[in-house]
Amino acid sequence: QDVQFSVLGFGSKAYPDFCAYAREIDCLLEKQGWDSRLTDLHTVNDKDVDELISWIHDWSSQATIALASAPAIYSAKVVGLTKFKVVAKSAVSATNTTFTLVLKPASKINMQSGDLIAIYPAQDQRERFYSIGYKDGLVQLVVKLFPDGFGSSFLYRLETNQTLQARVMVNPSFHFPKAANAVAVIANGTGVAPFLGMISENESRTPLRLYAGFRHRNEMTAHYVDFADEQIKLGHLQQLELAFSREENPQYVMDLIRRDALYFVELLEKGGCVLLCGALRMQHDVEHTLNELLLAHVGKTIADYKESGQILTDCY
Ligand SMILES: Cc1cc2nc3c(=O)[nH]c(=O)nc-3n(C[C@H](O)[C@H](O)[C@H](O)COP(=O)(O)OP(=O)(O)OC[C@H]3O[C@@H](n4cnc5c(N)ncnc54)[C@H](O)[C@@H]3O)c2cc1C
Fold first, then answer.
1. Which fold, 82-171?
2. What percent of the chain has pLDDT over 90?
3. Does the CB atom of residue 180 touch ligand 1 within 6 A?
4. Ligand 1 pocket, 281 CB below 6 A?
5. Which of 21, 25, 137, 228 is deepest in the core (most CB within 10 A)?
6. Over 90: is that where the pLDDT of 81 sits?
7. CATH fold of 176-315
8. Alpha helical stretches, state H, the chain
9. In angstroms, rounded to a whole number, what is the distance separating the alpha carbons of residues 293 and 47?
10. Closest by alpha carbon to 197, among 115, 256, 257?
11. Which residues pair with 128 in a beta bridge?
């Protein structure tokens, strides 16, 4: 019996490989002999309802199974929203495009650093996620401001005491591994957000190092240095290691990892954990570097440590 196929991909054009998986599947299905195409490949950017409806029309004109095509059905109201009040916001400058936003939930809500907050700038189905750094009932976000960015400029326009509705998404695979004997957290750019909370909350003084990469040395990175000094005094953090990619002697976090190869290999071999947060590109490069080091020193691959839950990632 001939099998007909129709591929619909969902994604965001903010990523260079927009709907790459859908394209791949579509190509693979095209090459099989046992099936035939029902519709062209359709993609939906950023939950765009019109693009979804366009696929539904195409599908409905070919298939015998009718799908509802009223846009209202697909613009479902978001549920599970919590009210937050803006407690503080920092400013961007000519040398720094990143700002922090501190939010206080209106009611008690279960969350911890590493969870995500979803915001709805136009109160429709389009959402943007930000990583939560949580301490003493307050949520701290670190956000890169994109010119005309739908989510980032919405957050930047918020004023102190203003409220917003947002959804907290528990992200259990990226919580601080409390049982670990030692932890290294690695970030680039805004990826530092959850780690600021995890460090502040490291009351049990798990040996903890922060490796972070930024483009430039600026007021934001100076703030991280002050924060780290304070946390080192409290015993919450052992070391802060910074890499700047657009300063004299450019460095990336991968260079720091290579320099501290023995520390990372020993950390993982002795059951410690490595957490990664930031750009997907950084995740790829850090994992590649760790893999090389592990192969050279102990003949293992990063997959071994991922399998045992020692490498946790939350990259975007
Ligand atoms: C799990 C998760 C956690 C996240 N955590 C954070 C966080 O803690 N802090 C933070 O700042 N962001 C975080 N993001 C990214 C955030 O959700 C938004 O994608 C980001 O703020 C840009 O959205 P925007 O609406 O402002 O820009 P858009 O309106 O979507 O895009 C505006 C312009 O910016 C470009 N752009 C958008 N995103 C990127 C990107 N990532 N790299 C390069 N160009 C881009 C677009 O191509 C476009 O030209 C996270 C994303 C995910 C999936």
1. Elongation Factor Tu (Ef-tu); domain 3 (2.40.30)
2. 95
3. no
4. no
5. 228
6. yes
7. Rossmann fold (3.40.50)
8. 20-31, 49-62, 71-74, 152-157, 193-200, 219-234, 253-259, 261-269, 280-298, 302-307
9. 40
10. 115
11. 119
